Amino acid sequence: MTQDYVPTIKRFPVDAPREKFIEALEKDGLVVVTGFATDEELDQSLKEVKPYLDNDAAWDGKLWPPETKRCTRLIGRSETVREKFFAHRLVQDMAEEFLNLTTTNYYDQTPTTYTSKPLLSISMTMDIRPGATGQRIHRDDKNHHARHVKSDNYIKNNDVLFGLMVPCCDTTVANGATRVIPGSHLWGDERAPLQEELIYAEMKKGECLLMVGSLYHCGSPNNTTDENRPVHIIFMCDGVHRQEEISYLSYPIKDVKNYSKIVQERLGWKSSAHNLPSVDIRS
Q1: Dist CA 26 CA 42 (whole Å)
Q2: Is the Cβ–Cβ distance between 128 and 68 less than 8 Å?
Q3: What is the pTM of this model?
Q4: How crowded is residue 24: how many other Cβ atoms within 10 Å of its Cβ?
Q5: Cβ-contact 125, 85 below 8 angstroms
Q6: DSSP class of residue 118?
Q7: Which of 50, 112, 221, 260 has its CA 20 to 30 A from that of 136?
Q8: Measuring CA to CA, which residue among 35, 79, 202, 65 is closest to residue 127?
């Protein structure tokens, strides 16, 4: 980052030129999309996951406070999240922009180019309920042992994860809006994040957040007494990395057959060029 960089969170309407989203993601590591979802879609999605949230047992460990409830396997448990949010043209366009891997190699003297497209890594609804404490500051690509090199400008294919967060309510300072450090995706591994560098990524119901996996961020405390803060969270990884969810065990093939084509491909039910993964050398 240059010395005159001012940490900001840019906001653009869902139908803004794609270059606006790319520029913000490259410079800041995140962008808020306005007009992304309707109240009806959000309410329906929350209705679909509520039974799983309410029956979720408290986490035994430091990752989440006991007041946080989760719905895992989200893609299979909410048709609305799967087909309206995850499959959304803008989300998939930006995922391909930042995660597609294109390489060229030779067969004899003939150059051949292949592109490996993103895969779903993990999908989950996180409902931060009253009294929940905040998370530690972290990068989500830690699970992939990603390495980061300091740079003043974004380096293509520097990220192995691309994320989407869709709140089902207004997220505020009081109820635990996600905190982020814009520009931290350009830091090297030797640079530690500081609490005073965090800013709140507050969102209105109907907005969503797009972010790269190298961005430092954390969940915030819910200091209210009566507000839940449910947010759908989806991360995709590039097509040659190991997925955090085991898609083939998480989602029954009889269900996957009814998913839209783009969702089937993102779950891994299609060979990426070339032949990864496959059964009998076929998708």
Answers
A1: 28
A2: yes
A3: 0.93
A4: 21
A5: no
A6: P
A7: 50
A8: 65
